[in-house]
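Next comes the chain:
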Amino acid sequence: MISFFLTLSRLIKGIIHTFHDKEFKVLLILTIAIILSGTIFYHEVEHLSIIDSLYFSIVTLTTIGHPYFSPETTLGKIFTIIYIFTGIGLVIGFIQKISKGIFISKTKISKKGEE
């Protein structure tokens, strides 16, 4: 449980540090929009619960995938193909910005300790 809170703390510090970057704000809004659109689509078309729709949207866009679920409708399969091509680059760019923020905030903390 301690590692969860440490990881969460690093994530929040990285987001706070990166939030001043205009490009990050754009990526944040676009990432929220694409995850929200996928969640709504899977909820309406594939009849998943909101949580399952959100989960499936995120695991799809982060290339993790879900071992027991794939879209059942033809429309769902076509949407997922387009969703993957549209969203993966966006989400990877967003994650990269957060990672950079975590690294930079960690570096600043290390330099303060050396002074």
In short: Helices lie at 2-18, 22-45, 50-61, 74-114. The radius of gyration is 17 Å.
